[in-house]
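QUALITY CONTROL LOG
STEP: pairwise intake check
CHECKER ROLE: data steward
CRITERIA: each record must contain a sequence immediately followed by its structure tokens, with no blank fields

ENTRY 1 OF 2
RESULT FIELD BELOW
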Amino acid sequence: MGKVEEVVCSFMNYGPEALPDLTSLKFKKRLSAYLDIYREFLKLSDFIIDSEIGKRTVKCKPGCSFCCNQIIHAYPSELLCINEFLDKQPGIRNSFAEKYPQWDVDFEPFREAFWDSFKQMPTKRAEFRSICREFSSQCPFCDDGVCSIYAVRPMVCRTWFTKRRFTSCNEKNNKDKQLKLSCYEGLHMAQLHLDQYFMEQFEIEGLPLGAFVSTLSHGVFFMNSSSLYIKSLKRKAS
């Protein structure tokens, strides 16, 4: 077991107190060390999810992709990891840039209500879920039903599965088809802890974690570079 793997296993077993202090490192090394930890967390998360899915009846299959038409949110760690991936995949970034404008146009009628309900969670949870169900526009990273950033997709995507035939996901006024995983709450809480850890390591203080959440599409579109993104978070918090 490598050092980073040991760190992540300790984190999952004992909580954020097991994570190392990175603040003495220069910016680039600090970011690299943090992303190493985050990528290892994704690997372990996939193992945990796959272990449970292997024992459940799941109807998802490659190409169905209806869940990719919903509003997908992302945390800073996820956006940084995706941005690093896109730096090495310019073709995927260019494809995203071509599709993003239409997605943003589709999002416009929902923009104000979406963020209002999100900021007042859990009080407006029902309204938030209603907006997410009503919105329908394919994620700019979806190419012919396949996720072009699958290896670094957000946690909300990793933990979304359907328990009925996948075609029923597209039926209007139908009940929620999501298969609730027993590992769901634990993994999402771990995600929150890692984002809190990220903010501490980069000295971003002053706002609750939820204030840094973005839609996946907006977060990627407005991120010029990881360093500028982190600086923008600091300005927002100050």
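ENTRY 2 OF 2
RESULT FIELD BELOW
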Amino acid sequence: MNCMKWVFGPCCCGCAYRGNDWQTADRKRLGPSLLAFFRQAMDFIHHLEMHHGIEEQHIFPVLQRKMPDFAKGAKHRNSHKGIHEGLDRLEALIKDYRNDPKTYSPVEFRACLDSFRDVLFSHLDEEVADLQGENLKKFCTLAEVQRLPM
């Protein structure tokens, strides 16, 4: 799950270093163009949506039989809901910026990311802890873990 934190970082860094005069900026110093940066952010959104879709359709239904935190209405699915509310806001913002790049605001972009950072990072940490071997042993046999659809 640290890969999501690793991917989230460039989105935050990207919005921190860009100024208003992005058209004349030194590209080597600043990294990708603004439109490439938007593509990266959209890739992050789509990757996370796909990841959560797989979890909710294939993995959580199996885990919820033994582990209540993975059931509908429980902490992991509720976290997904909060994360996706943030991703929806981010996607709308990026679409607006793509339509009119001059409206891009690093401050607004960063605020949007920050609005769901805590729920995202907490969820990643909790999910890793809940799926670690020592915790899984409390709920599942080794044979059951080996049959998980992963």
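INTAKE CHECK: passed for both entries
DESCRIPTIVE NOTE, ENTRY 2: Helices lie at 2-17, 27-30, 34-63, 75-99, 106-131, 133-139, 142-146.
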